[in-house]
Amino acid sequence: MFCLLYLTTELGSCVLGDKIVITQESLQEFVNALSPGAYSSITRINFRSLDNCLLKPMGVYGSKEEIVRFLREIHAVDDKTAQKLLLPRNETTARGAAPILRSGLYAVRSFLSSTEEQVYVLYWPEDTTWNDQAVTSVQRNRVTFMRYLTKLCDQLVCLLSAEHSQAIAWDDEDKDDDHVSTHSEESDNVNWLHYVEVVKANDQEENVAARPGFTMSSRLLVKQPRMRLDPKILSPRLLHGETVQGFMTANFRQEEGSVERFAYDHQSASQIPLLSEDDAAWCLSETLDDNTLENFMILGPGTRFSKEYDAWKRRRKEITQRFKRTLARRQTDLHVILERDSEDTKAKLRAAVVGEVLKAFPSLRRERFLPKSGSAESADPVIDVDEVTNPLRHLFSIYPKTISTFQSSMRIANFQGEIRTAEFQSIKARILILHSLLERIKSLNGDQIGSLAEVVLHGGDKQTCLEILRNMGSWRLPKEEEMWRDAIIFASQVSDSRFLLDFKPATVADCLHDAAVSAEETAYDWLAKQIESVASTIFEQVSSTQKEGCNEQASREVKSEEDRELGILRSDFVRQIEDLSIGSRSRTIIYVDTFEVRKGSPVSCSISGRRGLLQNQEIEYHVHCLRLLADQRHNLKLDPSSIPTPILNEGPSQSFCIPSETVVKYAHLLEGDRILMCLVDSHGNVMVILEPLSRIDNAIQSRSFAKFFYQDKIGQSCLFAVDESKRMLAVYASTRMQLQIFIYDEEFKSLQGLGSPIDLLPFYNPGVSIIHICFVHGREELLLVDSGAQARIFSLITMRPKPSSLQLPQVPRAIYSSPDGSYVLVVQRRDGVPTIMAYHWSTFTCTDGIPIILPDFSVDLDSALLSSIVNRNNVHLIGLDLDSRSCRSVILDITHKPTDFTGQEWRSKALSSRGKHTVHNCLIHCHVDVWSRFPVVPVAKLQAITSSRGRQQKALVFITDDDRGSFSSHFSNIVHTFERTSRKPTGEELKNISVSTRTFPSFANQFLSSPDWPVSRFRAGEWLANLLCLIPVQIAITHRNRFVPLKDGVVSTQLEKSLLGAGVNRIVDNLSLGWYESIFQSYWASKPVKVVSSMGEQSVGNSFTLNHVVDTSFAESAMRDIEGVWMSVSPTDDALIVALDLGGIHSLERSSQEDALLVLFSTAISNLVLFQSNLALSRDISGPFQAFRSCSSMWDPASNPSLFQSTLLVTIKDIIDSDRTEVSRELSLKFQKIVMDEPEANFITRLHRGKLQIISWPVIDSKEFYKPFAYLKKKLGRQPTSHRTAGKFLHTLKILMAKLNANDWRSMSQAMAAHRASALLEILPNALETGFSKVVPELEPLKNLDTDLVIEAEDTDAQFSLIRQHTPAADCELRFTTLLKSWERIPFRQRVDESEWTSGLVQHLTRLVDLRTDHVDKWLKSNIQGFHADDTNIEDLRRTFDSAVKDLREMNQLCKWQCDNCGLICIQSRLHEGGHDCLTNHKCICYCSFCRRDLSVAIPCGQNAGHAGNHV
């Protein structure tokens, strides 16, 4: 099962939202399974290779339990996996969260043939996906995934469980709705009406009741090992916060200074000073074994860590004893298994022996050697040889020693076709003698043959037999002696095996039949006894070998487990020693690499390692904020009783480092990802930091403190409190018992003192100190709890405590003020048990408090915190449970004496099924949601799927065992209702969907087992491209007034930092559009591109418009509001339509500069810009178009002719027919005023070449509402094509984004030329040397980078060398030698004139070089033809090419100097190193001229090659 898309969460504008992403690893496995090697990365997918495979995808969705049943039916999961899949998502185990399957689309392959296969595309839902009342985010995800599923598959199967099927409300059912009767005046089809009723809460007395809250598990919440540092410093801790929640984790870090090695050989422990260092930090090598480690602890720092050392030894002993018992138990268990399987083993061994016998005696029947009837093995007398040998091979593989045992036993048994029994040999000999005699005498009649047989077969001697032969007739047998002798020889030459084969009872003469039967039976009896004996012997030996093997196996396994556990124990002990020895006092660290003890008197030891000085000991803190999904925030506002489920942000946490002596005294999270933190250094000075989370470390390193207090003024027992509603910080100075109030500004940039310090000494008796302080939130009052357990409220207005006070039973462990300003919690201990009392502020000193009973809240109450989620009345007591690694909360419900009012919401009855409450109707009605949010018949006819001949009728099959409702008629009704109420163009698309119902057994039998049912057939490449085009990718965001391009749609702070200050080329090289890279660069690289972008005010339907114009899927691609720039691609016959969704401008989360950058990007790259608005006639339009006006001066369109080719099309929503003319006229006049005020600098002229159109969009749900979509598509089609190819568009897009990021406002064409030249220069050396752009990991031919077309040119396979590539000289010569050998006339050297041969070789080399340079030159011209020839970068490229060609020719010329060893010329390269060499054996290959002439013999010439004169 391959995951194609899955649901995840991502941090948006301070909220978490759902996002659908592609699973790259799983997609790679799926693609490569279809076509091996087609997927290299998400940016390199070979779609054309995939097109060779055909897919038949079938969509599957429905109830979880039925999907699991389906997966089991097709054997995609086993029973254990099926059980895990059905666990609820919030199911937890002892070790934290249980593994879950993310909601998403999964592909399950079902092979049909080598070129075609069925793929089940499965939508795995969330836990509440099929609940009609699911939260908004779940409903949105449901629609999105169903959109993808219906686009990918023409045939869908809906699997319904009994529960879901029975809960569906059909059209003819009559169910009451309380709200329907109350609000019956509304229309049945009103789906835009929501009721909100203000109701009075129940009058109750003051009370605080606790109920279970959320539980969030995290692997970050772990206990830290014991160290000399205070454990509280390194343990996870909650962060204060009234409306923001989070926690902080810490790690101890240290750096080493100078390091020196040491080694002591065979010295006593007292002579090695480092063993007695008390303050040293010890780091022991984990390669030390247990005995070595024990000796080291005895002779070294063992007394320093005696407690830990004793615990380690005790645990070692326990482990050793436990594994001894484990070994004995496991060996016993294995022996029991052997005994249980002994009969089976014996039978297999016997069968194997029988097999060996049958090899020697192939005429015998196997069943004759099987056990007698009645045994289990005799049920089937015919046994395949493989059934015997395969189990025995399994036995041999487990116990290899049994192979030799079996083979030696078989050699001893010596089954070589001989039956060693006298009875058989006697019968055999007589039969063969008789047979030989009868063959020689052909004229005997039946009686004579019978008489002869009687004598021969029943013991007659030679004379008797000869006498019988003489008396059988009147003829003479002069050679009877010879005939008898030949018969005896014949009988001795026939082997037993051959005899049994040739003389089977069924084939011999009648006179031999009884004897043949007797011989065969004798053979069977003897062989059966031998088989039994041999099998028993082998079984005894094999059993012994098995037991030995089992014992060895058990010993190995147990030893391995014991070693592993002892190793873990040893590693833990070593780390424990390290953690305990490293502390604030440690200045030396000793690494022990080896340690050896030599017994003797005295004991000596050897030790080696390194000794270093510790410097810069630091603690690294990580701040982790809890986030809440946007829909949960919405639900909490509507229903305060609901329980939220906060999650951790999946992105990297914010971190900072402080010296180990510095302590985080107080930390308070503020809204907007900011923090107020108070640090105390080693001198007791206090530093207050007020910064964004991302700048904490910078502030600490640069000492940019909001406030700094010296220790002598603030004291060691200083206290802090924050009131976010009043933006106040209270600081209590214990030295002078003073209170100082500070106020931070709205931008969180500074802390300003509020008046002078408040002296508290006049209000307290001597010796009393303040232990706790907290704000009464919302009021300028503080609660002060002193050392006498007296609690008093101090007014910051009157500057004195209130008259009354509260005497507590004891000094509290902690106090927590509720964020809503209603009460305070006091934590105390009674009889050692922590208790919590609540005191309402309104009756603070008049009551004894309200005891709170906490439901199963196993956290440390002393370090818990009070915080509010979504609204301040939703108060949670939050604590950390490190044992279960979880953050948990208890919800505190507060009631006051005053009566509360609240609002309750419910939906109109039209939102349910025809006015009735429904529970799971969305299993059917999810299709209506898809039709509503996306086009049914898009105006842009997409051509991603061109293999239309394989398309089948769209079908929807409901699989259920409940037959009380008609799915077909119900589906027809919802289609009819949708077409009537939405008035959306549908054609015959919906009516042509075939709807049917089947039971699961029927479905499984007819469809799952048969590949021939009607499923549309697609080419895999097109199908996958269609899938990828459905998923929008985020290509850029704006952040801190900067345009930030993204890589593969992922926000990466690390990448952003690495590109700060980078040039355009470097930025472009680091950009990637994810899955669209392969589409633009290869699959549809040659298609032209048209770009349409949509922006406007928030919530005016920007995404909806793009979806209905070009059939994209933007509506659910990110969070509630689009952030940055999202891109999607719609392939058509004529072009690729690129849609850019920029969302709403003028957002509160974006600055004006960021809006201007987005508008500039959109207008520069687009062919059609849609600006959608709710403009009123009386409204000044300069505001909505301020971003256009701001960016119009950033770039000069005249110097960028390839950009700013768009038409601006402004749409005004919800204009009735009678107002259209007036609205258009009034808006035109306002645009004319802008043009008159800014004649040549107006944005319409500069950004859109003066092209502007206005559309007064009809009212939604009117007959005319969907008509403008078709006009927009036609308008886009008529726009000039500014991007000739997809590859060219990709290049332009990346250059544009890089320039915006780098604030480079130079000419676009110059930047594109510079980058193209840079890219070609990088490829050029490889192109000249090999003729390819890449060689590793695979050959990639030279292509046009804009069209991905291969440059067709004649070339050679030769590899050349360039001078400036710094290739080793040996490699260069090897390449050159290969070039020489490629000439076909190389063998003719010395057979022709040397100069003639050399000239031919030079011509050959020149031709090869010319072929390569012509090919590369053609490639260069193809890739620079769109750029100005006089561009500096292009000219530099041409000069570099010319220089490289010159180097290539020079490098591949012959040396032509004379060889050092003969008279031939040197044919190494011109720039070779070393001596000159002709690359021959330097011997003349010709024959002596005189010998051939005078002696007519061919004797080789003995001179050097290339010599002058005759050959001698």
Would you give an account of this structure?
This protein has 1512 residues and is of the alpha+beta class. The chain has 41 helices and 53 strands. Strands 1, 2, 5, 8, 9, 10, 41, 42 and 43 form a 9-stranded mixed β-sheet that branches. A hairpin with a 4-residue loop joins strand 24 and strand 25 (728-733). Helix 29 (1076-1083) packs across helix 36. The longest helix is centred in the middle third of the chain and has 72 residues, at 510-581. It is globular. Mean pLDDT is 80; it is low at 12-16, 91-98, 173-192, 373-389, 898-915 and 1116-1121.
pLDDT below 50 for ≥5 consecutive residues: which ranges? Answer: 12-16, 91-98, 173-192, 373-389, 898-915, 1116-1121
**Rg calculated over all Cα atoms:** 46 Å
User: What percent of residues adopt helix (DSSP H or I)?
Assistant: 25-40%
Largest sheet geometry: 9 strands, mixed
Can you give the mean pLDDT?
80
Q: What characteristic shape results from the CA principal axes?
A: globular
- Determine the structural class based on helices, strands and strand pairing: alpha+beta
Beta-strand percentage range = 15-25%
Count of helical regions: 41
User: How far from one another are the termini?
Assistant: 80 Å
